[in-house]
Amino acid sequence: MNRKILFSVLGTLSTLFFIGCKEDVLPKPSSYLRLEYPKAKYAVAKNNCPFEFEMNDKAKIASKENCGFTLHYPAMKATVYITYKPVQSNLSTLLKDAQKLTYEHVIKADEIVEQPFVNQDRKVYGMFYQVGGNAATNAQFYLTDSIHHFVTGSMYFYAKPNFDSILPAADYVKKDIRHIMETMKWK
């Protein structure tokens, strides 16, 4: 009888020993989608407005009234809204409105980085705002010649603002916005 108990105990221990010798299960590390977008090709956006700029050929342009535009990026579900206003002794009001629009996102934004823009040769001056975090917009800008013209722009996504998810698309469109700023020319 003692032999039966001894073999039972040894059998149970050896079974537990072999069952317990599995590899440890580790959680998978966080990962992100690897989204690659085609290299941007730029062309002048034809219009009858007092300014022109180059835009990405992947964006679909739609004119609005008063020389406003929307640049749609269907593959990324993003849109850049561009608005034009003439300067009529109201430059300080236009600047305050552009800054106010940007800083309304401070509630959801982790940070707002201001990057001044100056092109002396073309007389284009402005600011690029990079908005970090889960704000509704990730980038905004304004451009002016300080005398006649004032252009603002904002980037929005047609998706819940989840910064990590839209980061590759946001970076792609931000490069396009910077290109718009660099190629802006008053007529």
3D architecture notes:
It is a single chain. The protein is α+β, with helices and mostly antiparallel strands. It has 3 helices and 11 strands. The protein has helices spanning 2-19, 91-103, 163-183; strands at 42-44, 51-52, 54-56, 60-63, 69-73, 78-86, 109-119, 124-133, 137-144, 149-157, 185-186. The strands form 3 sheets. The chain has a 7-stranded antiparallel beta sheet with strand order 4-5-6-10-9-8-7, sandwiched between helices. A hairpin with a 4-residue loop joins strand 7 and strand 8. The radius of gyration is 28 Å and the shape is elongated. The protein starts with a helix and ends with a strand.
Brief descriptors of the model:
187 residues; alpha+beta; seven-stranded antiparallel beta sheet
